[in-house]
Amino acid sequence: MSQINENAERQVELERARVSAIGALFDERLAGARASLGQVLASVADGAGEVYEREVAAGRLAGEVRRLEGAEGGLVFGRIDLADGMVLRIGRLGLQRDEDELPLLVDWRAEAARSFYEATPVHPMGLRRRRHLSLTGRTVVGLSDELLDGSEPTAGDVVGDGPLAAALQARRTGRMGTAVATLQAEQDAIVRSSHRGVTVVQGGPGTGKTVVALHRAAYVLYAFPKAAEHGVLVLGPNARFLDYISQVLPSLGENDVVLATCEELAGVVPGAVEGFAAARLKGGAVLADALAGLVRSRQAPDGDFTVRVGQEWVRLEEGEVAGVRQAAQASGLAHNRARRVFLELLVDALTGALARDTAATLERLDAEVMQLTGVDLDRMAARDLRNLGIDDPPATGADEFDADAVRAALLDDPHLDRAVDGLWPRLVPGDLVGALLADTDKLAEHLPQLTDEERALLLRSPGAPWTDADLPLLDEAASLVDGPPGRTFGHVVVDEAQELTAMQWRMIVRRCPGRSMTLVGDFAQAGPATAARDWNEALDPHVGRRFDLRTLTVSYRTTEEILATTGELLARIAPGQPPVRSIRHGEEPRTVAVEPRRLAGDLLRELRAQSAAHPGELLGVVCADDKVAELAAAGVERYARLVPASQARGLEFDEAVVVDPDGIVAARPAGERDLYVALTRATKRLCTVTVRSAGG
Given Cys at both, which of 204, 443, 581, 648 links 455, Cβ 3.0 to 4.6 Å? Predict the structure, then answer.
């Protein structure tokens, strides 16, 4: 064995011993958390207060157990040696035996770990050495050192390739893993940003936008406790993508995470897919204004109000009703909640009217008695009271009226409640959307800025199934009618954010009142429903210009050869957007031309050949959406993941086979952007299968 290998083995053994000690402390902490949770769950609570305290304690301990269990895999992955001799090991969480001692393990999100990611030979940040550890389970099997201070290697240094090179060459698994050990300085600067509001991360294919966003979410929950109190929402374009990223945050120790699509946020399963033109219209913010206008039209729009109370009819003038309406609207409550305010204020007005009517009736009776008999009933009552030694004046008509009792009776009067429905009816979100979209007159009234042709596209048959484009409208209607729908979150991650319509943005912003968000995307990859051309257009209605825009410039996934084939396409779909720089080289992309009738057979032969040549690697076949059923029936899924082009965003494969590029372009508006996405999914090899024309 060479001296170099002996030195490496010696360093590996030293690191194994240290990692073993860290693992022992970790096991101790995990066992303690589990035991404490068991004790709390087994305890007997006496009374509601103790039950509540037990539930709170159990929830806290269960969260701690999940956090520890999530961090167990790859617990330790790095080490930094400072120039002053201090050594810190970096891992998924922090572990320390004594507050007066250095921690055995530093959480990767801690400020002390920043230099592990951001130090360079030009800016060593006080480091002499950065060490990357390779582990199988908890056993160190290899390591690699980077010397950052310009010093010569010593006997204790093992200089070699870092983990990034290994990660880039590793086979795809169909699930995204963490990059906690391989974050690059450009990425880590975004992850650790002190900005507490909206952070936008843009970048071309393979730049790690999604990885950065998920690690940013984990950092926000670590660094900003108020955001952590309410958990994280990760919003993705489709269920396939969410499954792909589902393990990242739990493996970083964050378990209070909800993964969802916009459909799942709305809580409605669509029964149909909207056409592109209508979907684009329904995604416009003018629909929010239209729904709000329709709600206002149901809120005591005009006229007086007359209702029978007991045996009497009471009338409120139009001006009184308008004042009550304005006061209820000024409450800022959603329609159905504001209805109660309207009812209470209306009852106040009715009670006042009844008091005035009662007083007027008694005065009229007194006057009639005086006129007929000459007797002043009030004076007579006062004289009789004085004779009895009582000096208080007699009650007037107003004093005899018990306003509180009348008001309470009116608030509980079902007849009055039904009468108020004529002024301020209770609304159902679906009925509200249906009422707008099924009525040409209402569409014309509330959407005057649209053309007749555009309003015709929006027209919906009563009873028709809801479409995917209707869901943000239903969510908007729910917020207008019942108030904030669903849970709110401390931080929201939106992947493929360039895909969102204005109405979908409104769904998201409602669920993040603190406006702590990480948004990632690339407008060169925008789909057909996207109306915004850049982040300013997309975000201005919601957060103004108060967002931190960061751009990733280096592609770690896509090879230089693959990016080169997309240069002309990128220039067409995103003029002025510079291409990213790849740090990887690979095989030249191939093109295979086939006859239409032989497409399935030739594709299967290509997939069999690639599977045999590269066993264990992940193959992906990307095609136009309308080709999926045909290729699935031919058996493509025996060899590869079959993905419609509309759902390929964010995915990656060792090899991508793009079937019929012209068909992908023709299948949807903005089809060239779908093709750009398809061509940039591979980490190693790209094969394009073109279909010859009938005369070719």
Answer: 443
Which position has the token pair 């993508």?
A: 241
d(CA 274, CA 646): 14
pLDDT of the residue at 681: 93
Residue 439 CA: distances (Å) to CA of 295, 336, 511: 15, 23, 30
Q: Is the dihedral of CA 611, 613, 615, 617 positive or negative?
A: negative
609 DSSP assignment: H
Residue 88 has pLDDT above 90, yes or no: yes
Both tokens of 424, joined, read 């301020």
3-state SS class at 291? helix
What is the pTM for the complete model shown?
A: 0.78
Residue 262 contacts residue 510 (beta carbons within 8 Å): no
- The string of DSSP codes covering 167-195 is HHHSPP-SS----TTT--HHHHHHHT---
Residue 429's nearest CA partner among 466, 400, 375 is 466
Per the DSSP assignment, residues forming a β-bridge with 132 are: 78, 144
329-344 burial code (b ≥16 CB/10 A, e <16): beeeebbbebbebbbb
pLDDT at residue number 367: 62
How many whole angstroms separate alpha carbon 561 and alpha carbon 563? 6
Do 229 and 222 meet the contact criterion of CB atoms below 8 Å apart?
no
Sign of CA dihedral 235, 236, 237, 240: negative
- Extract the tokens encoding 293: 């206008």
User: DSSP letters along 365-433, please?
Assistant: HHHHHHHHH---HHHHHHHHHHHTT--SPPP-HHHH--HHHHHHHHHT-HHHHHHHTTTS----HHHHH
Position 2 pLDDT exceeds 50: no
Q: Tokens for 668?
A: 């949807």
| 504: three-class secondary structure by DSSP | helix
> 484-517, pLDDT tens digit by residue?
888 899 999 999 999 999 999 999 999 999 899 9
How far apart (Å, rounded) are the C-alpha atoms in residues 127 and 104? 18
Give buried/exposed letters for 188-213 (b at 16+ CB in 10 A, else e): bebbbbeebebbbbbbbbbbbbbbbb
Q: How far is CA 341 from CA 226, 325, 331, 346, 569, in A?
A: 33, 9, 8, 8, 58
> Which two tokens mark 472?
């943000």
Residue 590's H or E segment, with its range, is: strand 590-594
The secondary structure of 104-141 as a DSSP string is SBEETTSGGGHHHHH--SSS-TTEEEEEEEEEETTEEE
Residue 7: is it exposed, middle or buried by C-beta count within 10 angstroms (0-12/13-18/19+)?
middle
Q: Which tokens is 310 given?
A: 């007991």
| Bridge partners, residue 105, by sequence | 95
Rounded distance between C-alpha atoms, residue 39 and residue 664, angstroms: 59
388 pLDDT more than 80: no
